[in-house]
């Protein structure tokens, strides 16, 4: 979905950061913070738990994250591909968390080759 939203934004030329006049008018703010103190914590935890199993980022969330990132970090680049940046960042983080170094691979292969009886 993120790629589709990014191409839609690029085609509509909505990549230039707009001036934010009233934050309360954003659908993202209305959906996430309306009645925030009225909800119970247990309901919030349950909602967050089940939301991880389906599309947890909506189009409004993506557009808001993109706009905030461009306004903060890319002041001179209105045609910024936020989707490509996010994919690169997630791949780097994944390699750092899950990646295995070459010497660990070597130790693993030696252990597997020498462990013939067990």
From TrEMBL:
Family as reported in the entry's similarity comment: Belongs to the MLO family.
Transmembrane segments: 97-116
Membrane topology listed for this record: Multi-pass membrane protein
Tree of life domain: Eukaryota
Species annotation: Aegilops tauschii subsp. strangulata (Goatgrass)
Coiled-coil portions: none
GO biological process: defense response
Keyword vocabulary terms for this entry: Membrane, Pathogenesis-related protein, Plant defense, Transmembrane, Transmembrane helix
InterPro entries the record matches: Mlo (IPR004326)
Protein name, UniProt field: MLO-like protein
Compartment(s) of residence: Membrane
